[in-house]
From TrEMBL:
CDD domains: PAL-HAL. It catalyses: L-histidine = trans-urocanate + NH4(+). Keywords: Histidine metabolism, Lyase. It is found in: Cytoplasm. One of its GO terms (molecular function) is histidine ammonia-lyase activity. InterPro entries: Aromatic_Lyase, Fumarase/histidase_N, HutH, L-Aspartase-like, Phe/His_NH3-lyase_AS. It comes from Streptomyces nitrosporeus. Pathway: Amino-acid degradation; L-histidine degradation into L-glutamate; N-formimidoyl-L-glutamate from L-histidine: step 1/3. This is Histidine ammonia-lyase. One of its GO terms (cellular component) is cytoplasm. Belongs to the PAL/histidase family. GO terms for biological process: L-histidine catabolic process to glutamate and formamide; L-histidine catabolic process to glutamate and formate.
């Protein structure tokens, strides 16, 4: 595991911290201020627990069962019971990085000193993360309100030494065995602690943060592939001029146009349609080429909104009831996932539209009636060879899937808990489908890259020199194992290698080796 350490304090955390812990195995450490805040909040809860008046989550049942007062002798059992009964997930296992993000973000809220959890419980949460133990969490079980209840319950169950977990070696074993193997003592939950470990938007937030990181890479990648397509189609870079975008001042649009212009700097192909094809001068390029900055830019602005929502949520302490700075313990509705769910759905929409415009450019490259002199399907010997015909089919299937995934989950509330919890966010579902959409978008961009680089190579074979950044991308892609033009071959390995190249940041890095940092 990476020895980088993320310190968890009392004032929230950063998106970079979430990614470091979830994906890079960064270690977690509680700050002295967090330990002090945890102890102070626990004193408040202990004092309330000693009083005869019922307090939700401390001395009552939960949800629709909150009317029952629980005697002191049964309260430890109450906290164990809520974890066991709420660990009711079903379906496939959730990815390791999602579970680590979920655990880390719950620890972040616990460490805020607003939940009443004891310092030793928070330390056990950190110890489990640092040991590389990942509780088994299932796909289905969260409605995105009252927290991501079932997913968080499976994590809390592992802290108690129950249920199953994956060890650092990737093998799933009983959680108690894994804790013992790493010298970690299972927690014995006390008043409010079971509830506090379950009651947050941590799963959907963790997936939002990671999706934003992935989409930032993909939007820069899509600016590059759009530029490559413009070049391969002998389009004009004049539409990218800063003064044209300044008069419609959406920030993302200007950024995307500037990225494309920098990638195309020095190209011997752009704007040479009449020279190289002998056709009449082309007045305007097709929308999928000419409007790329507008579409990509609108998506970038949506990402910026998503980052704003994520940052606010990362600064929050989501629990119910919550321990306030003045010592009051108050019920609230901050666990409702609507703010996160809405932006997750919004991102699925822009991902689908970005995939759609990428596919339209790819199809244009393959169609001899619209590609301005490129061979049909970019084939070596069209008719004998099919070229990239079916690669575009695959891309089109992915685009269709993204359109289905763009249907919002957050409008589909369904009541639960005997109508006590009668409006829910479905934010977990929105996050799960966004992850699928991001994976599909990566593949769509990879197919466009594959087609565009082949088209640029075919176009430049007779002499015109592509932009230096385009040449750098082609060289890096070939070095990554993706072959160039030639007779038909088994395409799936090339497409998989192109997907890895895009997802891992290879495409952006290759272009930036010439252009310098792109936004």
């Amino acid at each position: 595991m990476d020895m980088h350490t993320v310190v968890v304090g009392t004032s929230g955390t950063t998106a970079e911290d979430v990614v470091a812990v979830a994906r890079e195995g960064a270690r977690v450490e509680l700050s002295a201020a967090a330990v002090e805040a945890l102890a102070a909040a626990r004193e408040v809860v202990d004092a309330l627990a000693a009083k005869p008046e019922p307090v939700y989550g401390v001395s009552t049942g939960f949800g629709a069962l909150a009317t029952r007062h629980i005697s002191p002798g049964l309260r430890a059992r109450l906290q164990r019971n809520i974890v066991r009964s709420h660990a009711a997930g079903m379906g496939p296992r959730v990815e390791r990085e999602v579970v680590r993000a979920l655990m880390f973000l719950r620890l972040k809220t616990v460490a805020s000193g607003r939940t009443g959890v004891r310092p030793e419980v928070a330390q056990t949460m950190a110890d489990v993360l640092n040991a590389g133990i990942t509780p088994v969490v299932h796909e289905y079980g969260s409605l995105g309100c009252s927290g991501d209840l079932a997913p968080l319950s499976h994590c809390a169950l592992a802290l108690m030494g129950e249920g199953d977990a994956e060890g650092p070696d990737g093998v799933v074993r009983p959680a108690g065995e894994l804790l013992a193997a790493h010298g970690i003592t299972p927690v014995e939950l006390r008043e409010k602690e079971g509830l506090a470990l379950l009651n947050g938007t941590d799963g959907m937030l963790g997936m939002l943060v990671m999706a934003l990181a992935d989409l930032k890479n993909l939007y820069t990648a899509a600016d590059i592939t759009a530029a490559l397509c413009l070049e391969a189609l002998l389009g004009t870079e004049k539409v990218l001029a800063p003064e044209l975008h300044a008069i419609r001042p959406h920030p993302g649009q200007g950024v995307s146009a500037a990225n494309m212009l920098r990638v195309l700097a020095g190209s011997g192909l752009t704007g040479r349609h009449a020279d190289l094809t002998g056709d009449a001068p082309r007045v305007q390029d097709a929308y999928s080429v000419r409007c790329a900055p507008q579409v990509n830019g609108a998506g970038r602005d949506t990402l910026a909104h998503g980052c704003l929502v994520a940052d606010r949520e990362l600064a929050a302490a989501v629990d119910n009831p919550v321990v306030l700075p003045d010592g009051r313990v108050e019920s609230n509705g901050n666990f409702h996932g609507a703010p996160v769910a809405y932006v997750l759905d919004f991102l699925a929409i822009v991902a689908a539209d970005l995939g759609s415009i990428c596919e339209r450019r790819t199809d244009r490259l393959l169609d001899r009636n619209r590609s301005h002199g490129l061979p049909p399907f970019l084939a070596d010997d069209a008719g004998l060879d099919s070229g990239l015909m079916i690669a575009q089919y695959t891309q089109a299937a992915l685009v269709s899937e993204l359109k289905r995934l763009a249907v919002p989950a957050s409008v589909d509330s369904i009541p639960s808990s005997a109508m006590q919890e009668d409006h829910v966010s479905m934010g977990w579902s929105a996050a799960r489908k966004l992850r699928t959409a991001v994976s599909g978008l990566t593949r769509i961009v990879a197919v466009e890259l594959y087609a565009a680089t082949r088209a640029v190579e075919l176009r430049s074979a007779d002499g015109p020199v592509p932009a230096p950044a385009s040449s750098a991308v082609i060289r890096a892609l070939r070095a990554a194992g993706v072959q160039g033009p030639g007779p038909d071959r088994f395409l799936a390995p090339d497409l998989a290698a192109a997907e890895t190249f895009v997802a891992g940041g290879g495409l952006v890095a290759a272009a930036e080796s010439v252009t310098g940092p792109l936004a």
